[in-house]
Design brief:
mainly alpha, Methane Monooxygenase Hydroxylase, Chain G, domain 1, 3-stranded antiparallel beta sheet, 3 helices, 3 strands, 8% strand
Length: 110
């Protein structure tokens, strides 16, 4: 990660492909990964339920649970993004980040 350079105070850029990278602390990354691992297990469980011909309503309830868990990950990531990346970009004078965040939020609430 030593090669990653700050393109502004609010984001990091991968010099190999020019894409922006997050800069969340290890605790946040662990929390997000743990949640995603649980969701992955839920999705595998749903697949197994389908293969075992479990009653549709039971499967639909598990799907709703997995969707809710994904939404929880999205909310946590959005909060961390707003408190770090977005705030730093605004402090650096980059107001275009507001349009980016609004667009992202609209995708989340579709």
């Amino acid at each position: 990660m030593d090669e990653i350079q700050n393109s502004c105070s609010g984001c990091q850029e991968d010099p190999e492909n020019g894409k922006r990278l997050s800069h969340h602390n290890e605790k946040t990354i662990r929390e997000l990964v743990n949640r995603m691992n649980r969701i992955e297990g839920q999705v595998r469980g749903i697949k197994g339920m389908i293969e075992r011909h479990v009653y549709c309503d039971d499967i639909l309830n598990q799907i709703a649970s997995a969707q809710s868990a994904l939404y929880g990950v999205a909310k946590l990531l959005l909060e961390k993004h707003m408190k770090s990346c977005v705030m730093e970009q605004l402090q650096a004078g980059d107001e275009e980040v507001i349009d980016e965040v609004v667009k992202t939020i609209f995708k989340l609430i579709k």
